[in-house]
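Supplementary material to the annual report.
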Amino acid sequence: EVQLLQSGAEMKKPGDSLRISCKVSGYSFTAYWITWVRQMPGQGLEWMGRIDPSDSYTNYGPSFQGHVTFSVDKSINTAFLQWGSLKASDTAVYYCARLVRDGRADYWGQGALVTVSS
Amino acid sequence: EIVLTQSPGTLSLSPGETATLSCRASQSVTSSYVAWYQQKSGQAPRLLIFGASTRATGIPDRFRGSGSGTDFTLTISRLEPEDFAVYYCQEYYSLPITFGQGTRLEIK
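Predicted assembly:
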């Protein structure tokens, strides 16, 4: 069974750094890209970008380039989303999802709530 | 960047009725790369339709996707109580990948 299990909710202050995780199981981690999607409170879905776990090649959405970093650890079948300096506007639920070869997201993590507040 | 505009913003219907959700793209989209997702409150999105018209695994045939070019439609027949949710279209061929702003389907 394909599963993407995300790390738990986080509460941080502006300027803090953070890394959240997405551990996959039930399939070959390096065979499918992982995408990250943001959902701000009460808002729609925003594509943040994607990473190829086989070689860590990444594409970032224009609103996220330079503000977040995607990475993977193949030894533990886990993808990461990282911020170097959080802002209050980063408060959102973040989803990871598996991308099929054509780019559709067929399996999703449960989401991770990140709250940034002073 | 392709902008997807969904309409209506909110659709109020009763169980048993048919819902018609629209997704219009700012430029022509390769049909093979249009998807629809359902999101229930507090849950992750779920893939319903890909390639504009192919149902994902386990999706009942009450859900039908159609369209080409710049106009795409999700039709949900014989609405069930569990169908009331928010629906997003997505174009996943060109970068950046984009989502529509969503249509909320609510019980009338």
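Chain A has a mean pLDDT of 97.
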